[in-house]
Amino acid sequence: MPIPIRALLHDSRVLATLAVPLALTQLAQVALTTTDTLGLMGTEALAAGGLTMVIFNQLRTMGVGMVTTVGNQVAAAAARAESADPEAPVQADGDVRDLVRAALALATLAGLAGAVLMICIGHGVAWLGQDFAMIDATKSVLYAMAPGLIPCLWFQAIRQFTVGMRRPQALLQITIASIALNAALNWALIYGAWGMPKLGLPGIGISTSLVYLLSCLALYVSTIRDPQLAPLLDTRVWKTRSTTLRKLTGLGTPIAATYGSEAGFFFVVALIVGTFGSAALAAHTAVNQLVYIVFQIAVGLSHAASINVSRELAMGRIDEARHLKNTTLAFAGAVMAVVGAVYTIAPQWVLRPFLSPAEHEAISIATNLLLIAAVLQFFDCAQNIGVGLLRGLGDTKGGFHITLIGYWTIGLPAAWLLAYLLDLDTTGVWLGLLTGLATTALLLLRRYNRGLVARNSDAPEPAPTTAAP
């Protein structure tokens, strides 16, 4: 159905208000994690640092998933404040405060659980089949990074509150500042620069934990200085209602599982590619990193669409929620078309930051993968937007179930069959990846459309009007 011009302009402004700062923040966070592996000297240090970041990011991502739905719940509660009912704003403010308390409590519990699990993994890293020389190094970094997971998730909880209130302006500035601070602390603590102790690899973990703590404090200070946000930022977690905490946990657990499932799927894909040699794995890593960077734009659009769908549905505007889906997909499609054109026209230029000109075999494989990636990114973006739209509906379990089907039941078997039975090697893996993402995207969007139809049929009938005499 065509989108009315007025609705398109309105949705575009609404999306841009949230999507632009969120997408830029996501891109900045990619740079933040990248600084943790820059400056490491030697194969052992790189291997230990890389393994540590894989473990930490897996736990961090799942922890973030636990509090992601907070933004939707806050947006819906804030939307009710715009109701014509004079008592609605008072009740909505109380709901938002209750959500903030529960979000911080959930972030604390998830952070503690993740930190304990990280320490346990540090003890068990020897069982992962890694080289003995890097086990102690990996363990020391994991121990230093574990405490940082708690303020990291506090930051995410406050972030979701500000996004739900549609006031994310401080996020980007804080994230950019944290990149510079993280790089400086890494250098100082690894090599003992500027009078700091020379800690070597554990300096990365201490630096990361400090940056997460300072970033959380900066966002908290910024929030309490905002006259609209300060009255609603209730940090008295001991007053959290058990019902609200259970609700957020029930909504967040499938999201965390979805994030974990997706990360696990791409990890298995990388293992399959690795069986075709180092050149294939290098090509896969380079193209996958490019896709991941561009994917952050989709994440920003997905979060923005999700928050605004929650608002529109809270106010009973089903058609506007449908228009938001169409507008978001149109914006994403336009961006992905431009990126795909660059992949196709200038593959050597795109790959240059990742692969040296001397790596002819890897460049040849990566060039072919870029052609697939040009199409794959449309579906990768659409499936992420689909998950966000369902989150706006309050349907987090449906998104998890569909991603299990798309990734593991269809995508992974297709990658294996195309790679091995049809002898397409790495190209076959990526065609299977494309198949899984396309299936996931279509199923998610179909479920969202059906959810809107169901929501519309459940809406109360308008009261009959009496004709004037």
The total of helices stands at 15
What are the secondary-structure elements, in order, as H or E?
A: HHHHHHHHHHHHHHH
User: Main β-sheet, in a few words?
Assistant: none
Cα radius of gyration in angstroms: 23 Å
How does this structure look, described?
The chain is 80% helix and 0% strand. Helix 1 (5-34) crosses helix 11, helix 10 (278-314) packs antiparallel against helix 11 (318-345) and helix 13 (360-393) runs parallel beside helix 15 (425-458). The chain has 469 residues and is mainly alpha-helical. It has two domains: 1-26 and 252-459, no CATH class; 35-240, no CATH class. The chain has helices spanning 5-34, 43-68, 70-80, 88-124, 132-145, 149-164, 169-191, 202-224, 242-274, 278-314, 318-345, 347-351, 360-393, 396-421, 425-458.
Label this structure with key terms.
469 residues, mainly alpha, 2 domains, 15 helices, 0% strand, globular, disordered C terminus
Brief sketch in words of this structure:
With 469 residues, the protein is mainly α.
Describe the secondary-structure layout.
Blueprint (H helix, E strand, L loop, with lengths): L4 H30 L8 H26 L1 H11 L7 H37 L7 H14 L3 H16 L4 H23 L10 H23 L17 H33 L3 H37 L3 H28 L1 H5 L8 H34 L2 H26 L3 H34 L11
